[in-house]
UniProtKB/TrEMBL annotation:
Gene3D superfamilies: Spore Coat Polysaccharide Biosynthesis Protein SpsA, Chain A (3.90.550.10)
UniProt protein name: Glycosyltransferase 2-like domain-containing protein
Domain of life: Bacteria
InterPro entries associated with the record: Glyco_trans_2-like, Nucleotide-diphossugar_trans
SUPFAM superfamilies assigned: Nucleotide-diphospho-sugar transferases (SSF53448)
Pfam families, per the entry: Glycos_transf_2
Domain Glycosyltransferase 2-like, residue spans: 3-158
GO molecular function, one term: hexosyltransferase activity
Originating species: Vagococcus elongatus
Length: 237
């Protein structure tokens, strides 16, 4: 069984497009856990209108933000393998099968794939997110704290990895970075693959987008993440 975990917020313009690209790759026994963070548009109605039993929609009573919404989704997931998904990207056909095959061939606990980067009109920005973002393809705990190269929408991992990461520390910068850090601290096998399996949509409406921060804000974020790592696993350092 697979669990796709998605956080939504005012995503009516694109959430159905994304769900269509996912649903056609899933079996009847898989699930999509959607945690809506109090959308004020038609997001919830559109999702409910699909009438697909694989979709489990949960609505936050108050706006808690993407980190806590993804934390809730992970806690609700029942699948052996978990995929994270943003509301506005597009999964390319074969993404699920490719990741499951790579996971089996490599014995990996975490698979991270590449993506084509596009704008809100789906016009190409870059053929590779890894190159566009200068991601470190040999991640360690330290370099992941310094510069997070993990994008949740390009990650799949075992349920054990998910459970190891829960509950999220309050001071972390992003959910995907924390899941990756937790996996690395638990000595899980993390494999980065070159396969382009998704259109990664970059625009100002992403539920998980982060506004450009000052150097001081970024430094504070790194320090808070480092504190979370030390508190989580005092033996690491």
């Amino acid at each position: 069984m697979l669990s796709i975990c998605m956080a939504t917020y005012n995503g009516s313009a694109f959430v159905i497009r994304q769900l269509d690209s996912i649903l056609r790759q899933l079996s009847a026994n898989d699930e999509i856990i959607i945690v809506d963070d109090g959308s004020t548009d038609q997001t919830k109605a559109l999702i409910e209108g699909l009438h697909d039993s694989r979709i489990c929609l949960y609505v936050n009573q108050t706006n808690i933000g993407p980190i806590k919404s993804f934390e809730r989704a992970l806690a609700l997931a029942k699948g052996e393998i978990i995929f994270l998904s943003d509301q506005d990207d597009i999964w390319l056909d074969g993404k699920v099968d490719t990741i499951l095959r790579k996971m089996q061939l490599t014995g990996s606990d975490v698979i991270v794939h590449d993506s084509k980067v596009v704008d809100g009109d789906l016009k190409k920005i870059s053929d590779s997110w890894n190159q566009h973002n200068a991601n470190n393809l040999q991640p360690t705990v330290l370099n992941t704290i310094i510069k997070n190269g993990f994008s949740g929408c390009m990650m799949a991992f075992t349920s054990e990895v998910a459970q190891d990461s829960l509950p999220f520390p309050k001071t972390i910068e992003m959910h995907d970075q924390w899941v990756a850090l937790s996996a690395l601290m638990h000595k899980k096998k993390v494999t980065m693959i070159d396969d382009v399996l998704m259109l990664f949509v970059r625009h100002g409406d992403n539920a998980t987008s982060i506004k450009k921060r000052s150097f001081i804000e970024r430094l504070k974020g790194r320090i808070n993440t480092l504190k979370a790592v030390i508190k989580y696993n005092s033996d690491f350092f």
